[in-house]
Amino acid sequence: MSEASLTVRRLTRSYPGEDGRPRRVLDRLDLDLAGSETVALLGRSGCGKTTLLRALLLIDHPQRGDGGQILLDGEPVPTRRRSAGALRPYRRAVQYVPQDPAASLDPRRDVLTQVTRALRTLDVPGGADEHEATAHTLLAALDLPRDLWRRRPHEISGGQAQRVALARALAPAPRFLLLDEPVSGLDPALRHQVLDLLAGLSDDGGLCPPSPSAADMHGPGLLVVSHDLAAVARVCRRTLVMDDGQVVEDAPTAQLLTEPHHPASRALRDAVPHMPAD
Ligand SMILES: Nc1ncnc2c1ncn2[C@@H]1O[C@H](COP(=O)(O)OP(=O)(O)OP(=O)(O)O)[C@@H](O)[C@H]1O
């Protein structure tokens, strides 16, 4: 099976402005991600990163005049008038870990059920036993011991909640995983732990349950949204810099740390407190 691809072509998104006229936030944006890649999406606050993520997750509301295409493996995905059933294959393939994972967990359900329920909702093949086995494997692999599995979100720590959200996102064996600021607000130790975990994810799919495309040996492609070039440099080989609703630089992360071209990239590099020696 060929490598997965997630493609965005000439994507335009707007919000209603104060004068009632649409205010363009994404401006004919193009993006190409491969299933084997680890890509950071950086940019100053307000440049449109979340708007792009929402578009990729098909949870936005395009305004009149908005357009462009999102394609999974070359197939256009409906970005308007979406029916839940028709979108399930896409939702299984493109998963998400939000910025505040603890808040994204269902407060009424225990850790194990957060994962099994996601599998059921997404119509992932297999019965309850198989879903539970997948959840067991992932929770254990993410260092969430069995005595946590029957606890509800308010009974676990923030770092544990983050890993539960990650387990839930990985359970359907996605081909792409989108992460919104995965380490912002974490203490330094936990930050390292999460970054190591993400770095380990990308190479060989080590944590992912067997994918329906088992021939695809790669882990999910990662798209990591962040403000922090230094943090993503540990995980992402490629970095996209956004400014004013467009990708203004697309370069290997190592190159961006040493030779940023666009002023927006230079500002990000200059915000890195200590440049790595290499
Ligand atoms: N629902 C909305 N209605 C109107 N304007 C919005 C809405 N959501 C975002 N915006 C505006 O669109 C622009 C892009 O916002 P977006 O959240 O995509 O930026 P961002 O790059 O994710 O910022 P941050 O890094 O601060 O999260 C901003 O100017 C923001 O104020």
Automatic annotation (TrEMBL):
The keyword Cytoplasm does not apply. The keyword Nucleus does not apply. Residues 6-269 form the ABC transporter domain. GO terms for molecular function: ATP binding; ATP hydrolysis activity. One of its GO terms (biological process) is transmembrane transport. Keywords: ATP-binding, Nucleotide-binding, Transport. InterPro entries: AAA+_ATPase (IPR003593), ABC_transp_ATP-bind (IPR050319), ABC_transporter-like_ATP-bd (IPR003439), ABC_transporter-like_CS (IPR017871), P-loop_NTPase (IPR027417). Residues 1-21, 259-278 are annotated as: Disordered. CDD domains: ABC_NikE_OppD_transporters. SMART domains: AAA. Pfam families: ABC_tran. Belongs to the ABC transporter superfamily. This is ATP-binding cassette domain-containing protein. The lineage of its organism: Bacteria, Bacillati, Actinomycetota, Actinomycetes, Actinomycetales.
